[in-house]
Structure formats: C-alpha cells, structure tokens
Amino acid sequence: MNQNSKKKYTFGWKGAFALFVGMIVGTAIVAVANIFSMLVFNENFQYKDFYLIIANAAGFLGAIFAFDYFVARPETGRKLNFNFSPTNFVTYLLIFPMMLGMMFIGEFITSQIPVTGPFFGKFYEFFSDLMEQMTKDGATMILLAVIMAPVFEEIVFRGIIQKGLINKGVAPMKAILFSSLIFGLVHGNPWQLVGAVLLGCVLGLVYYKTKSLLLPILLHAFNNLCSAILIFYGKTESFAETFKVSEYVVLGIGIVLFSIFYYLFMKKYRVHYSEN
Questions:
Q1: Which in 133, 143, 203, 257 has the greatest CB count within 10 A?
Q2: Long-range CB contacts (< 8 A, 24+ apart) of 117-123?
Q3: pTM higher than 0.70, yes or no?
C-alpha cells in the first residue's frame, strides 16, 4: 500500500490561515475584475446577482484550493478528496426528520433573541435589509442558498475543519462542536448564529457517523430550501408564523422529532461506511 495513502490531513492554525487567505484572495480577484470593468467599460457589476454568485464561488474555491495546496498536499502527498457516497434508504428516513426537529428547536431559541432596542433593533434592521436584498430574486437565492452554500460550506466546515480536527486527535464531539461554532460565527448575526450552531451539530454528527459528505450537503440544502419556501410564500423564515401556531407547539414537535430520530439514528441502526 502506498505510504501516502495512510497519511491524513489535519486542521490547525495553518489550515485556518490558508482558508482565510484563500477566501480573501478569491473574492479579491473578482473585485479587481469588477474594478477593471468600471475603469475600462464604465460598468459596475457589484450589485448584479451574477456578481454575488461569482464572488461567493470564488471565495470558497480560493479557500478550498489554498487548504489543498498549502496544507493537505504537503501533509499527505496527495490532493484533497472527499467521500460523497450515497447511503441506504433507511438512513435517509432517520436523518431528515432529525434535522427537521432541530430546525424547529433552533427556530424557537432564535425567536427569543430580541429584535428591538438600542443595539439589537438597529442590527436587526440592517440584517433584515441585507436579507431582503439577497432574497429579492428567487433564482439567485435558490442557486446561492440551496445549491452553492450546502456544497461549499459542508466541504469547508465538515470536510476540512471537522475532519481535520478529528484527524489531529481532537475528540469527535469536540470537533463537531468547534466546527459548528465557527459555522455559526461566520454567519455574522445572532439570529442565524444559534440555528447554524445547532444545525451544524446535526450535520457534523451525520458526517462523523456516515463518513459521507453527501448526507450533510443534502440536509443543509433541505434546511435552506425550507427557509426559501417560507420566504417565498410566507414572507418569513418562521414555521410558527407561516402556519399560525404557537412557538411552543413548534418547539414541542421539534423536541419529539429530534429525540425519536436521534435515538433511532444513534442506537437502533448501525451504519457502516469506510472512508479513504
């Protein structure tokens, strides 16, 4: 067996620096191209939907490339790769209700965060205006939130950070929690932070148990698709507001769903996967 095939990449300060610089460089390249367009063609694409899409992709691709080139290859002797294997049907029946339950729990906790006051009020207005700008075009929102974000974010937060920490010897649950906290913090606002951390823990757990990035990608897409549908038809991301039920009803259903399917996922079914 090739000796390099036994080596695993790790995540530490060097990896964090590579991701950060790679994302900055990737988005800077797109920004420079836009400045060139402004100077030569007198055309500013900054507020165009396609610019947002390209800048987002460039940032994540730059981060992934930087980690691959400066961390993964020197440590392992081979390029970065991930397992995207599908799983058995039973596992899907367990993980999606579990995810939905945590989505309900996350919504209740998020609803307790103030949206008024001297600090939260202005911050929430800014956040709401930003989200309105991002969601005004349905096709762009679907492409960014339901397709691109799940793929890129799961590769970075679960595939690189979480897996790299576990490869480094960090306890799996600590690695899942740490990657989820970072995942929540990069959302940049308290209303998405809570849900992102909770959902990140579910995504991380599923990835750790199944060793396939396909599953957290699908769960992430499911969460974002639900949010997009609620925004399109209810003008809100809240299940409680859309279906005109109490937040406590949503919480109760969430606890029941999550508890039952978490138990079944963890205790009743043994999921066998191998990861190269």
A1: 203
A2: 120/190, 123/189, 123/190
A3: yes
